[in-house]
Design brief:
Blueprint: E1 4-6, E2 13-14, E3 27-28, E4 30-33, H1 38-41, E5 48-53, E6 58-64, E7 69-74, E8 79-84, E9 88-94, E10 111-116, E11 123-127, E12 132-137, E13 142-147, E14 149-150, E15 153-154, E16 161-163, E17 169-173, E18 192-196, E19 202-206, E20 212-217, E21 223-228, E22 234-240, E23 246-254, E24 270-272, E25 278-282, E26 285-289, E27 295-300, E28 307-311, E29 317-322, E30 325-330
Antiparallel strand pairs: 1-9, 2-5, 3-5, 4-27, 5-30, 6-7, 7-8, 8-9, 10-11, 11-12, 12-13, 14-15, 16-17, 17-18, 18-19, 20-21, 21-22, 22-23, 24-25, 25-26, 26-27, 28-29, 29-30
C-alpha cells in the first residue's frame, strides 16, 4: 500500500489573524477555574487559540519533537494533517487508513490515536480502517502492521494508544471504526483494553468497559488511565508493575452525572503532564484532574472535544482536536518527556 504527501487543498482554512493583544490567533471558548490550583497550571491570561478549522472530525494529535510540528487526523476524511507555526496546515498522509478497495469495513476509515515510540522514534498509529496498530515507514511511506488480532480474532478498531519508555504498548479497541449500529464484521464479543509486551505477547487488560477510548500513563509509568466514552462516563486507573502487567482496576473519576458546563462531549482522549495531572476530554470540555482525582478546572472550546496532547518547543502547549477545530492553550506545565 503506497502513501504519499500531498499539498493542502483550499477547502480548509488556516486561522492566522493578528490582534492588538497577546494572541496571534483568533480565540474561542472558555477556561473554567473551579479551584485556585488551576492557576498554577493555566496562566490567568491564557486563551484557547483557534489554529485551523474545516475538519469533519479531528482526532489523535501527537507532537513531533524532531521536526517541531503537530500531526493529527481527520478520521472521516482518511487524512493525517501536519501543522506548524511556520508552515501552517498541510496534508501529511492520505489515505491515512483503509485504502484497499470498494468494500470498506465502516465509515470511519482513517487513523485515530497516534504516539511516538520512545525507543525507536517511529510514528505508531491506531488504524481504524484497517483494524490494526501500525507503524509508519517514512522512508517509503508505507505502514507495517504491529498487531491486528487477539486470540485468533480481528481487533474491532483500535482507538488510542500509549507506549512506555520500555516499549510496552497499551491501547483501546472499541468498535467505532465499524459500521453502526450493528457493527458487521465484529469478531470480538467485547471492547477490550490491551497490553502488547515488547516480546510480542498480547494480554487483555480489561473488558469491563463497553467503549474504552482515551489512554495514558503517569510520569512514573506506575499508573494506567483509561476513559470510557459511553453513557457511563468514567475513567479507570490501573496499577502497572515493573514488567508492564496491570492490576487493581478502580474508578479514577466518575463524570456520568457531571453537567456543570453542559453535557456536550464525552470521555474521549487524554494527556498527562510531567507533574502527573490528567487533562481528559469529558462532558463540557477538557477536565483537568490532579493526580489524586480532584477536578480543578475545565477547558471548553464550545464544541465536542476528541483529544489533546502536549507539544511545542518547550512542551508547555496543549494541542486540542475539537470536532471541526484544531486549538491550542499555552500552559505553565510541560508534557512528559520535556
Amino acid at each position: 500500500m503506497k502513501y504519499v504527501i500531498i499539498n493542502l487543498v483550499t477547502c480548509l482554512i488556516v486561522i492566522n489573524v493578528s490582534f492588538a493583544g497577546e494572541h496571534l490567533y483568533k480565540t474561542i471558548g472558555t477556561i473554567y477555574r473551579d479551584n485556585p490550583e488551576i492557576n498554577n497550571l493555566i496562566p490567568e491570561n491564557a486563551a484557547i487559540e483557534l489554529l485551523a478549522e474545516g475538519f469533519d472530525w479531528s482526532e489523535g494529535p501527537v507532537w513531533i519533537k524532531d521536526g517541531g510540528y503537530l500531526l493529527f487526523n481527520d478520521i472521516p476524511q482518511n487524512t493525517t494533517y501536519e501543522w506548524s507555526e511556520q508552515k501552517g496546515l498541510t496534508i501529511f498522509l492520505r489515505p491515512a487508513g483503509y485504502a484497499l478497495g470498494d468494500n470498506p469495513p465502516g465509515m470511519e476509515l482513517g487513523c485515530n490515536g497516534m504516539f511516538i515510540n520512545p525507543m525507536t522514534n517511529q510514528l505508531v498509529l491506531c488504524d481504524h480502517g484497517n483494524r490494526c496498530i501500525a507503524v509508519l515507514n517514512q522512508n517509503n511511506w508505507t505502514k507495517s502492521i504491529i498487531v491486528n488480532m487477539y486470540q485468533g480474532k480481528k481487533l474491532n478498531s483500535p482507538n488510542d494508544i500509549v507506549i512506555s519508555s520500555k516499549g510496552h504498548y497499551y491501547f483501546t479497541d472499541p468498535p467505532y471504526g465499524l459500521t453502526w449500529p450493528d457493527f458487521p464484521g465484529k469478531e470480538l464479543e467485547y471492547s477490550g483494553v490491551y497490553h502488547l509486551h515488547p516480546d510480542g505477547a498480547m494480554m487483555l487488560v480489561t473488558k469491563e468497559l463497553d467503549r474504552p477510548n482515551g489512554i495514558g500513563l503517569s510520569p512514573d509509568e506506575k499508573t494506567l488511565y483509561v476513559a470510557n466514552s459511553s453513557k457511563r462516563k468514567i475513567w479507570l486507573a490501573f496499577d502497572v508493575a515493573d514488567n508492564g502487567t496491570t492490576s487493581n482496576s478502580r474508578i479514577f473519576y466518575n463524570a456520568t452525572e457531571f453537567d456543570k458546563y453542559g453535557q456536550q462531549g464525552g470521555c474521549d482522549g487524554l494527556a498527562v503532564d510531567s507533574s502527573g495531572n490528567i487533562w481528559a476530554t469529558g462532558p463540557g470540555g477538557i477536565m483537568v484532574f490532579t493526580p489524586d482525582g480532584k477536578h480543578i478546572g475545565s477547558i471548553d472550546t464550545g464544541t465536542r472535544i476528541s483529544n489533546c496532547c502536549f507539544g511545542g518547543l518547550k512542551g508547555n502547549e496543549l494541542y486540542i482536536t475539537a470536532d471541526m477545530y484544531l486549538c491550542r492553550v499555552k500552559l505553565n506545565v510541560k508534557g512528559i518527556g520535556y
